[in-house]
Amino acid sequence: MREKLPEVVVDRRDEEVAALGEQTCAELKRGRKDTAVIAGMTDQGFTTPDAKTVLTLARTSACPT
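^ thats the sequence. predicted structure below, dont judge the formating
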């Protein structure tokens, strides 16, 4: 994520970045729709495009298959 969204993670520790991916995966596993997950991230201060990128990165990198 650091390479794809450096401006989003610049002020976050590695543990916080990992937790963001894990939280996103957990939301998806609970059956939350993409739009709800993205809305939750925008409530935390992410822009919608950044939230969409985080979701995509979590799916491809952090979420177990």
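Residues 32-65 form one domain.
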